[in-house]
């Protein structure tokens, strides 16, 4: 503005229409302002990408290293006890821990692979008519063990026997699994994880509810981001990869659905997703 | 018998490292999260604390900060045993008063035990 006034007075001294000079100056100043704004936004975005990348390396290196160290130290322990002859039970216990940690590595690698494949459109090509009730039943069956171990009761509120959607059964199962697993591990001890399905004329809505601590306000806008783990989640559930909800959301969106949640700190969270149905 | 408090949420490490330390004649007390680790530290007053950083409930650095701010626990040597190796974490832990900072992946079990023995001798 100051430069416009300056050029207005300078222009008034030397030419007949100083307002034209002032308008041109105003135009150039606005253009420069827009360019500066765009550059600053780009730099902010780059900084954000860099922060995510650093966070990714930190999480992946920790997640990969922890089971690897467990395996290595278990083997070292077994080797150091060879002379003392450990009991078969003790040996089996350590072999079991090695197996469990190998599985943990596999899970992380498969999550990373899914994330990589989600960028590939052909990954979503194989679709068919799928009864979503079957998917719910299978996921509940797979997580019975974890819910019992975590002292969580699973409650189902489903009336229909058949609800057909058009999609990739395996991917839809993965999406539900990620949401359902969170509702178990982030639940309070002795809490309930409730899954319900509501049918509408053209779509279904699935709700997965927990009685956990809820999502803190500061974390809410990030929870579907790749590799995001809230400080609370990082400290209460040390094994997570920060990929579950990102994967679930990407799969639901690729099936023409939407995903959202409602949360209240201290009372729990409900994750909802909708999918279009077929007759 | 010297008492070691081992605050670590990985069952395997509790068993392998904890088992060897017990064999070596130490009394090992285990805690699987930051909260119980802090209360056990005040209760048993160990000769040494081995502390992981990524812990359920209370982060290891917060546990360390608490330990070093309380009169009854501030003189207990604390070894950080973790898989995090960012310069920021190392710096923060040493600044808060950790005796040493060990990255699990860089050490064999025997080397870790040597470091523990050394920290106990130095008090």
Q: Care to describe what's here?
A:
The complex is a heterodimer of chains A (279) and B (123). The model of chain A has no long low-confidence stretch (mean pLDDT 84). In chain A, strand 6 and strand 7 form a beta hairpin. In chain A, helix 6 (169-185) packs antiparallel against helix 8. Chain A has 279 residues and is of the alpha+beta class. Chain A folds into 2 domains: 1-117, Orthogonal Bundle (Helix Hairpins), CATH 1.10.287.130; 122-276, Heat Shock Protein 90 (2-Layer Sandwich). In chain A, 26% of the residues are buried. Chain A contains 8 helices and 7 strands, in the order H-H-H-E-H-H-E-E-H-E-E-H-H-E-E. Chain A is extended. Chain B contains 5 helices and 5 strands. In chain B, helix 2 (34-44) packs parallel to helix 3 and helix 3 runs parallel beside helix 4. The interface between A and B is medium-sized, with 22 and 26 residues.
Give the arrangement of secondary structure elements.
The complex is a heterodimer of chains A (279) and B (123).
Chain A: H1 2-14, H2 18-80, H3 88-117, E1 128-131, H4 132-142, H5 144-149, E2 153-157, E3 164-167, H6 169-185, E4 192-199, E5 203-209, H7 231-236, H8 244-254, E6 258-264, E7 268-276
Parallel strand pairs in A: 2-4
Antiparallel strand pairs in A: 1-3, 4-5, 5-7, 6-7
Helix pairs in contact in A: 1-2, 2-3, 4-6, 6-8
Chain B: E1 3-7, H1 11-23, E2 27-31, H2 34-44, E3 48-51, H3 60-69, E4 78-82, H4 87-96, E5 100-103, H5 109-122
Parallel strand pairs in B: 1-2, 1-3, 3-4, 4-5
Relevant terms:
heterodimer; A: 279 residues; alpha+beta; Helix Hairpins; Heat Shock Protein 90; 2 domains; 5-stranded mixed beta sheet; 8 helices; B: 123 residues; alpha/beta; 5-stranded parallel beta sheet; 5 helices
